[in-house]
Design goal:
This protein has helices spanning about 90, 105-115, 185-195, 205-210, 220-225, 225-240, and strands at about 30, 60, 70-75, 95, 100, 130-140, 150-155, 170, 175-180, 245, 250. By secondary structure, the protein is α+β, with helices and mostly antiparallel strands. It has one domain (about 15-45, about 55-245). The strands form three sheets. The protein has a five-stranded antiparallel beta sheet. It has a four-stranded antiparallel beta sheet with strand order 2-3-4-5. β6 (about 130-140) and β7 (about 150-155) form a beta hairpin.
């Protein structure tokens, strides 16, 4: 079985995990403080490598980096074998701007950030790293326009009986790339999604691992209700502020 998650920059991760910022879970919300601009704009032409038969329909209702413009997020499958098409994070996420679009993860911004914050090197997402992308879930903390989100995963289009298959990210605006959050934030956001989507629902294990995309419920809205996600939350709460990495599927302490 593949390792859950993305390939994340790692060779400096041993210097120690970044400390997570406290979250007031009661302040989390599903809607942004201000709607992003440009929702529903026609999707730009994707790269020739993003084939129509394997890519989902790009969505423009979410602003992942908090710049005010809706970004294009394209559901993409992770290759299940060596014959499958491989996609990078840049294929899944294209940032919106007043003039159209832009890419992210420029080395000119990443390198100075790594130099200033070497302890965070291991939990920044490689923009060209292979990934799958599920339709994302988001959560906003108070008036912060930058959402927590889940969706990037080497599991998609599968959902796996693994609570770590889908991690929580937040855009690092200084480094200009998504960053995996620490354990305390992971636990708080996942518990918020469980409170938002799971109360009163009676899903089976089959629903968790094979959610029907045609149902009105969002696939990840179902996945977060799985008992193994609750177990992952308990592990994160126990382990505290350490960063969950995809190097070993466990927490770096």
């Amino acid at each position: 079985m593949k390792k859950a998650g993305l390939i994340i920059l790692s060779f400096l991760a041993a210097l120690g995990p970044a400390q997570a910022q406290p979250i007031n879970a009661s302040a989390l919300r599903l809607t942004p403080p201000v709607p992003c601009k440009g929702a529903g704009r026609p999707a730009p032409r994707t790269k020739d490598t993003v084939h129509a038969d394997s890519a989902g329909t790009p969505s423009t209702s979410i602003d992942l980096n908090g710049e005010g413009w809706c970004d294009w997020i394209t559901p993409l499958p992770y290759p299940t074998n060596t014959q499958g098409q491989e996609y990078g994070v840049r294929d899944a996420i294209l940032l919106g701007t007043a003039n159209g679009t832009r890419t992210f993860g420029d080395a000119a911004r990443l390198k100075p950030y790594w130099k200033k914050h070497p302890q965070e090197f291991g939990n920044l997402v490689i923009p060209d790293g292979p990934t799958g992308m599920a339709p994302p879930l988001v959560a906003y903390a108070g008036n912060d326009p930058v959402p927590y989100f889940a969706g990037l995963s080497s599991a998609f289009p599968e959902y796996w009986g693994d609570g770590d298959a889908y991690q929580v990210y937040k855009w690092n605006r200084e480094a200009d790339t998504p960053q995996q959050v620490g354990n305390s934030e992971f636990a708080a956001v996942m518990k918020f999604w469980q409170q938002s989507y799971c109360v009163g629902k009676n899903y089976s294990n089959q629903d968790f691992m094979n959610p029907d995309d045609k149902k009105p419920d969002h696939p990840l809205e179902i996945f977060v209700c799985a008992p193994w996600v609750t177990e992952a939350i308990h592990r994160a709460e126990h382990d505290g502020a350490g960063i969950k990495t995809f190097l070993n599927g466990r927490d770096d302490q």
